[in-house]
Amino acid sequence: MKVLLRIKRYDPEREAKPYWDEFRVESDPIDRLLDALNTVKWTMDGTLTYRRSCAHGVCGSDAMRINGRNRLACKVLMRDVGNKVTIEPMLGYPVIRDLVVDMDNFFEKYKSVKPYLINYDNEPGTERLQSATQRERFDEGTKCILCGACTGSCPSIWGNPDWVGPASIVNAHRFIFDSRDQGGSERLQILGRKDGVWRCRTIFNCADACPRGIPVTDLIEQVKRAIVYGGPGEE
To answer: CA 154 to CA 177: how far, in whole Å?
Structure first.
């Protein structure tokens, strides 16, 4: 199938504003969009810039805005996007070049919620055991690959770049609801601030954008309830 790729290009060091560039490529319906972008870069225009790595939907590096929705280029099949595809960098991030965005602020917010196990007890000498039910409470949050697609799809981020964002809240949830962790109150205090969880407007863009199918909005609501009730409660 012949496909027209309409790609938003921008090099802040050389150009005053972004512009649209078009490429026509031959593509198989079961090819991935990443394959089409590789065809452009390798055979048509080597200056086209985008991130890519594992190409299997695990690393999350090739998140971009495809036909108006944040997706991973390595997971989108050409048959699902048609013969004309609009490709842009994700919104809410500064553009470094073309489809590559600056995610430094994203990772600073991620680090701010203490996304690691906090436990003040002495080392047990064995694994810290928990039941299957206890594990299930935070299992969804462990699937996050930090691609930034959820955060870049959020209107609250577009309007307020200081907001902590859905990805950070998901990763905080993963430890707040972990029975082995003792840092939940610290994270809830962080997320209870003005740029914390309450700026979520429950729009569900984040859940739609997540390539791992994480119910992002639901996890955010669970964190809100934990703040209101003084903790995640017992399972």
So the answer is: 24
